[in-house]
Model the fold of this input.
Amino acid sequence: MKKLNLLMVILAGAIVFSCGGPKKQKDEPILENKNTYELIKSLDWMLGSWQNVSDQGTMTETWTLLNDSIYTGKSIFMEGKDTVFTEDITIEQRGNEVFYIPVIKDQNQGKPTLFKLSSNKTDGQVASFENPEHDFPQIISYELKGDSLMAEISGKMEGKDHAEQFPMVKVK
Done:
């Protein structure tokens, strides 16, 4: 019996060594090609809470880091104590592309709309996201100037160029 067990161990070892040891799975990532999420990291300047208080109400937009590839955002517009508008947003890096993905409860049947990062100037801290197929806006952009953040939505509305700006200051 001992000879049989010894023979089994030797045979198993010979099989493993003759096959070159354990094989890597075909789907196993190669470390040199690992995505480092540098594109989304270049938007770190958007993180934090931003606010605009005006006679019409208070707009607050808050951006947080969910993980290496996703930022989550929430935009809220209040008139007094009444919430008039909310928007849940993610910015996600998927491979070598970054998307701005808003979800508005009463628009697009509550489904997300993707806007692809089309311009990112880290020296001026400007980012533009585009979706030419969307009704309005087709472009969503952000620009950091000191402690101020300017958000803008723009594009064609009823065949005419239209833009709306949302200036905000950092509160956190």
